TrEMBL record:
Pfam families attached to this UniProt entry: HMA
InterPro entries, alphabetized: HMA_dom, HMA_dom_sf
Domain HMA: start-end pairs: 20-78
Alphabetically ordered keywords of this record: Signal
Domain of life: Bacteria
Organism, as annotated: Bdellovibrio svalbardensis
SUPFAM superfamilies xrefs: HMA, heavy metal-associated domain
Identification of the protein by name: Heavy-metal-associated domain-containing protein
Extent of the signal sequence: 1-16
Length: 89
């Protein structure tokens, strides 16, 4: 039973994740463009979209980003703050 559960966990972990980060301080399309140019160009990004107040990413297989890494890239774009995240499969 325990073995089956951990096997299930591992196979789910191998699937691509979509992570939505909430970002405070974005006011217009050029904020989104700036953030896009810093976050979406990071190595290991598969999909990456920036919309008003949100950054939605899918890392490549085997790649994980921490919120700190995303915050660091977002900070290069300007005075923006990552306030939280949601993971969906
Ligand atoms: Cu702006």
């Amino acid at each position: 039973m325990l073995l089956a559960l951990s096997a299930l966990f591992i196979s789910q972990a191998a699937l691509a994740e979509t992570i939505t980060y909430n970002v405070e301080g974005m006011h217009c399309g050029s904020c989104a463009k700036m953030i896009h140019s810093k976050v979406c160009t990071m190595d290991g990004m598969d999909k990456c979209e920036v919309t008003m107040g949100k950054v939605v990413i899918s890392p490549k297989a085997g790649i994980k980003f921490t919120q700190e890494q995303i915050q660091s890239a977002v900070s290069k774009a300007g005075d923006y703050k990552v306030t939280g995240s949601n993971i969906s499969k």
